[in-house]
Amino acid sequence: MRKRPKVIIIGGGASGLMASIAAQINGAQVVILERMNRVGKKILATGNGRCNLSNVNLDINNYHSSYIKFVNGIINRFTVEQTLDFFNQMGIEYKVEDKGKVYPLTEQASSVLDVLRYEIKRLGIEEVCEAEVVKIKNDKSKKYDKFTLYLKDGRTMSGDKVILATGGKSSPNLGSNGSGYQLVIPFGHKLIEPFPALVQLNLEGWFLKRIKGVKFNGKASILENNKNLQTEYGEILFTDYGISGPPILQLSRKCGELLQKKNSNPYISLDLYPDFTKEELKTRIISRFYYHPEKTVELGFVGMINKRLIAVILKEAGLNNLNETCKNIKDREIDNIINILKNWKIPVKGSRSWMNSQVTAGGICLKDINPATMESKLLPGLFFAGEVVDVDGDCGGFNLQWAWSSGYIAGESAAKSDI
Ligand SMILES: Cc1cc2nc3c(=O)[nH]c(=O)nc-3n(C[C@H](O)[C@H](O)[C@H](O)COP(=O)(O)OP(=O)(O)OC[C@H]3O[C@@H](n4cnc5c(N)ncnc54)[C@H](O)[C@@H]3O)c2cc1C
Which pLDDT belongs to residue 353? Predict the structure, then answer.
């Protein structure tokens, strides 16, 4: 009679927890090894503590990978609908917010982790924390327990199948420090160079310290050689290092790609007044100057431009004498000011660090993984789940959905495949 396969999951994050349940309900005996003192730390931080767990408007264009067909296959095999049913059956009531984002009705990420942990306990899955795996060994000659995992503290553990669910390199304080990559590279798996995504950007600008904390609702675009590659709209925040806010996080993936290339000099272009055309702005400015000819140009903009931005914008537009009266401002100078307000180009120096990024672009290359099962093509019995592979999604619940879908498929396949 076939022995119940022992599946060891490395990493107790979103994908590992999902994989553990899928494997156990499909007949495996499961152990989760987690390097932190408890599982699911990152889940608690998601969606600002509200956990944007999925997105009902999911589209493959929300994902990025060198092998996007692979991603489509997995998402269609364990779908958003199945995911929401799965969580609903475990007790999560949910609601759909703008742009299809799904949150638990409680708006508490801890509810999501709590129901997962309750289910894990109910099913009898073993959870071992403070257990960092540093090496995987495989002995093909054995029938059972082919895999031996070596822990940092000297312990070992053996099993028939292994699921690597160690996440990427983002937010290492929550557990994912990139150590998972090194566990499978010795078996021939290739790494697509990781870079931080969904992250704030460092900008080059003399003015940053002066305008830190200024917020506006506007458009931000990423430009390379004056070509607009992507535009996003929403609340944007200047910081002492550069720029932040949801539109910037969405642009950061494209920006990261450019920063990976040699000789690429990406720029951010800001439109501070997306609801006005240049002509409309010009009419307003001319009228302001007409009614207040004796005001200094700096005062002339109070009430139209955020006070902390005025001097910076005027200087960026080439006006050095801020005490010049409005009546003396030339037409060409007004055009320059409008150009800054509508198309303020600021060079990008880089992105913020791994600590600040929400997701990792790049990871273990999907070409060596079976798209139906998440099993390694190089080492049978080794499976992958979640962010450790070369898949990342936009902001909006797409990354957790990838963790749930890939975790479920990996867990189910590991339990069902032959020992
Ligand atoms: C602040 C923040 C907010 C986010 N908000 C959202 C959101 O609202 N919606 C969304 O869709 N996505 C969000 N994300 C992204 C999402 O959380 C991740 O994509 C997802 O958690 C990835 O799941 P994972 O299981 O692959 O990896 P992780 O959740 O990173 O889990 C990996 C686990 O493996 C453990 N581990 C690593 N190496 C080892 C080892 N060698 N041995 C043992 N254990 C190991 C780690 O400690 C960790 O617990 C957010 C991310 C962050 C940082």
Answer: 95
